[in-house]
Amino acid sequence: MKFGQQISQTQKQTQKLVMTTQLQQSIQMLQFNTVDLFSFLEQKALENPLIEVELPLETTSISTTKSNQTDSSGEVDWVNQIPDQDDSLFDFLIQQIHLNYRQTDLRDLALFLIEYLDSNGYLSISVEDAVRLSQTNETKLLDALRLIQILEPAGVGARSLQECLLLQIERDETSPNLAYLIIEEYFDEFANRKWEKIAKAYQISLSDVQIVFDYVQHLSPFPGAHFSKTDEQFIIPDLLVMIQEDQLSLRRTKEAQPRLTFQKHYFEQMKQADDYEVKKYLKDRKEEYEWLHKSLLQRGDTILKIGEAILRHQQNFFFDTKRPLVPLQMKQIAKEVGVHESTVSRSVNGKYLQCPFGVYELKSFFPTGMKQPAHSDEEIATAEIKREIMKIIENENKRKPLSDQKIVEQLKENSFNLSRRTVAKYREALGIASSAKRKRYDEN
């Protein structure tokens, strides 16, 4: 058998997109939110002696609430937005123990157990493991746990949701008479709304059980959550919407516009050095400044243009108190502005718009929509559909809640053509229980 091998030389033309470091950083700058952009520019200023960054703000963190305080000039008072630094749950409990209990072995055990409380206030270690680790007996350990359970907030130190509710009911003098017994003896039946068994056991009416249920709804299943420290995002709106009569206007906020300054005097001074490496270094650093300055201006212009396009589509949001949104896709805005869809995506993520009634992420102005079978070209925002479902459920007879199919029928009367499965999906997304769990047993 013969083997042959032929060697030939061919020329092939291919096209590839090569992303330079500058192009990658330019895309990255567009994707940054304002705070990340500030950090990025400050780092560049540290690396490049020819760049000076002037930031419009000196604060380091502000609240992410949608209601921002303003002064008489209409400018946002960002300093008053700095979140309070509250004690953690751990610190709060330690303070109570040192204040209320004298130095004993029992107090030491209580301090030991506090280290095993999770952020919601629940004991995250079993009694058996705690006994083994602390090298004590179970009775003493449970006594120490009881010391924790009588501290504030009510419910802390619980080992289950049932125990958490019982600890809160135990302290509340206004709790319904049978609330403690029902939660203690019939917790599963109560939670699963098998109330007939409970009513029969205590010889009470279903409306009496309903009263207990309404009361329990106001108890906290996570007593320690109030103390949980979340990392507050530093939000500075990029755009400001002004409403005058029936006109909308949009501009960039000065708080979101850092300034880059070129250190010309330092550049001219260093340029006098008769050293090739120094001159090359200065040339590279100057080019970096020019690129950063250009990219910063381009970033601001792109966000502003996209914001203006959004306003043209979502005008009703700013004039109608119900804040309706029409379905809008990023590719529509990309076509109008003359950029790629990915550019729109980067420009709206983490960028915020401030208006007289709140602060909103630009991404929130792109609600999904669903086509209506009766009108193939018509789309209705899912937010509008959800509002309609909520309205129907709010107005239903609570003693005879509407099934998902009944909701479908009522939606059809209002020209919303949805399947029962879709209604169920939206209802669950709204956190609304099924008809069986919405039923109330109030007395007439």
UniProtKB/TrEMBL annotation:
GO terms for cellular component: DNA-directed RNA polymerase complex. One of its GO terms (biological process) is DNA-templated transcription initiation. It comes from the Bacteria. Residues 80-266 form the RNA polymerase sigma factor 54 core-binding domain. This is RNA polymerase sigma-54 factor. GO terms for molecular function: DNA binding; DNA-binding transcription activator activity; nucleotidyltransferase activity; sigma factor activity. PROSITE patterns: SIGMA54_1 (PS00717), SIGMA54_2 (PS00718), SIGMA54_3 (PS50044). It holds the Pfam family Sigma54_CBD. Belongs to the sigma-54 factor family.
